[in-house]
Design brief:
This protein is mainly alpha-helical and 67 residues long. Helices cover 46% and strands 0% of the residues.
């Protein structure tokens, strides 16, 4: 059984490309749930990896998408 597209990479090791994309999407002010869908990982994995690597995620009280 195939995993849903939104968590297709759950449990997989993070690649340099994944981390670059995470950093890029976070800098563009995308919320963690959207970043998770783009990278195919659960939102919790996005938040955890961002904390581990020092990537700042959008504060919940700010509008998304660079507004």
């Amino acid at each position: 059984m195939a995993l849903p597209q939104s968590i297709r990479n759950a449990g997989e090791p993070w690649t340099i490309q994944d981390l670059s994309k995470l950093e890029e999407l976070a800098a563009d002010n995308f919320p963690p749930c959207v970043i998770g869908m783009r990278l195919g990982r659960p939102e919790d994995a996005i938040v955890t990896q961002a904390r581990r690597t020092g990537i700042k995620l959008t504060p919940l009280n700010r509008p998304p998408y660079g507004d």
